[in-house]
Amino acid sequence: MDLVVSHWVADPRPSIMTGLHSRWTRYSTLNAPQGRRCNRLKGNGRRWTFRNAPGNAAGRHGHGLGESNQPFLYFRKRLVAPNRPRDLAAARHRYYDRLAEHFVREIGSGRIRTILEAGCGRGQLTIPLLGKLPTSARMIAVDSSKGPYAGWLNELGATLHGRRLGHRVRVVDSDVRHLEAVDTESVDVVVSNELICDLPRKPQLQKALGEFYRVLRPGGIMVHGEWSSCPTAGPQGLLIRHWPSWTPDHLFVLMRDAGFHSFRVTYFDTTMHLGYENAVGELRTWGWTERLLKRHDRLLKQQGIELPFEHLIRCEKEKHRVE
What we know:
The protein is an alpha/beta fold and 323 residues long. It is built from 9 helices and 14 strands. It has one domain (37-317): Rossmann fold, CATH 3.40.50.150. 29% of the residues lie in helices and 25% in strands. The strands form 3 sheets. The chain has a 7-stranded mixed sheet, sandwiched between helices. A 4-stranded mixed sheet has the order 3-4-12-13. Helix 2 (85-107) crosses helix 3 and helix 7 packs across helix 9 (297-303). It starts with 36 loop residues before the first strand and ends in a 6-residue tail after the last strand.
């Protein structure tokens, strides 16, 4: 199966809330731009949309990747995982290794004793972060491990044990809005990746930010990564969008109100394109039903899916003032 390199088309209009971890959405068949095929998917209280940009990049530019023997391919900072699970594992490993490097750059070179990762999942970012932080640094990995993420903390625990990293990580089963298991002013850094989209309502995010502020030591650093709310132009293909998309502007206001300062936004411009089998597996983890998958099977076989780029917002907690 040939792969198509995806094309992000910016859409400034607001989208409809899709719910828990349901990624990217917009455009119905009624309001789609002329020449683009759009399909409205509906299920489990969510609204889903595929948008298919015109043309076939693989046919036009000759990037048919289906016959490659490489486990993944790198094209303009796009990691391509064709169809086999091992292809996805290799691409995902490279993706999160690069993302961890970006997080470490944002954290900086100051002394780090304890770092809290909120919404750690099965440890996609946790493991590479541990490899890039000083060996003296300890981590608190927090996740509620519910819904589509059920069992992920157990997977993380098994991975940490197998890699002999358990002594460096304390795993906490908790909602990030209620971090009673973490002491006040006990961590130097708070990080998260693709967590904020699971806090779609303003009060939910405000509560989580209040907890992050509480557990951070004075002068502590917070870095959150989230899929970009405004995809950029590139080669063509299938677009998946999510809402709510907490833009850096939204996050700046809420984080400032929570007491944070010294804001900086950076962009991680590596993404992944998933072939059919890997795309189906990924969509299942987002809560897609078999009915939805069957309905859009042909489109997935033709183009797979591509994940958006990320923006990272960094800020700090104010140091205690000297009287």
